Amino acid sequence: MIQVDPFLAYGISSAFALAGAPRALTTPSAPRPAALKATLLFLGLLFVPCGLWLLHAFPAWETMQVIPDPPGWLALAFTAGVLTAGTAGVLVTEHLLRRGLFKAALLQTAWPTFAIVTLFLHGWDGTGLRRLLTAAPAQWPATARSRVTDLAGHWVGTSVALTLAVMLATVTPVVFWLLRRLSLNAQQSQGPRLAAAATRFATALLAFMACPGILAAACLVLLMRMLGEAAGCVVFTITALPLLHPRGPLARALATCSLNPALRPAKALIRRSEAQQL
């Protein structure tokens, strides 16, 4: 969906930047760092073509039932938006890494998932999930009042669902392979232990991209359904702020998670550079 694809591009490209962190920090003046090249190749050769195909084959679904007959310029705007978001994900994450803000850099991979799942479950008017599960444009807006379970049962066997399943089965292994490859190439040496560590890093990073964002978005949507949109957002914000504090539980969890061994070389490089400047 064009509303969520820029967020997804940002999160994936941020993960690429994390995987290539040691090399990016050792060559800060490189005109085309590995993470940025991997991002542009992945987006240009796989991600954007998938999005354009969905926009061509299922225009109403791809625009969340907003534009059943999209104009030609929308494809250009979609491509430009995805490439811009992906580039921003790399540059922002590498900037945070160079400043030593590792927890903030890790969160760049998680907050896009929160935005995506919130759009899917709630949307901008409370009908996000029904828009997602409406495959035929002629069914909208009648399905806005349908039961979600009924819509899900009909949607599973549709062409949209099958196309998405094939794309997901194609894109996910490519992202995993690129994360592992970038992590391996970023190290100063090679060996079986580093290969195993790169595999664990890629697996942990994919899990971190998905799980916190999904959980947080589900909590937000549940609060909005129970208390109303305004009150739910207020309660969620009050609850989330202590969790996001630099010394809060989320920060402590990040300090002990399995992503840190892969980022340890990057941290050592920054400390060495600061010591030399002093």
Radius of gyration: 20 Å
In quaternary terms, these chains amount to single chain
**Percent of residues in helices:** over 70%
Q: What percentage of amino acids are in beta strands?
A: under 5%
End-to-end C-alpha gap: 49 Å
- Contiguous low-pLDDT stretches (5 residues minimum) are none
Largest sheet: none
The ordered string of helix (H) and strand (E) elements is HHHHHHHHHHHHHH
**What's the β-strand tally?**
0
Give the overall form: globular
> For the residues shown, what is the average pLDDT?
82
Helical run tally? 14
Class by helix and strand content? mainly alpha
Number of domain units: 1
Structural account:
With 278 residues, this protein is mostly helical. It has one domain (5-277). The chain has helices spanning 5-19, 21-26, 34-57, 59-62, 73-98, 102-107, 111-121, 128-132, 148-155, 159-186, 192-227, 229-244, 249-256, 260-277.
Can I get a quick summary?
The chain is mainly α and 278 residues long.
Keywords summarizing the entry:
mainly alpha, 14 helices, about 280 residues
Question: What layout of secondary structure does this protein have?
Answer:
Layout: H1 5-19, H2 21-26, H3 34-57, H4 59-62, H5 73-98, H6 102-107, H7 111-121, H8 128-132, H9 148-155, H10 159-186, H11 192-227, H12 229-244, H13 249-256, H14 260-277
Helix pairs in contact: 1-3, 1-5, 1-7, 1-10, 1-11, 3-5, 3-10, 7-11, 10-11, 11-12
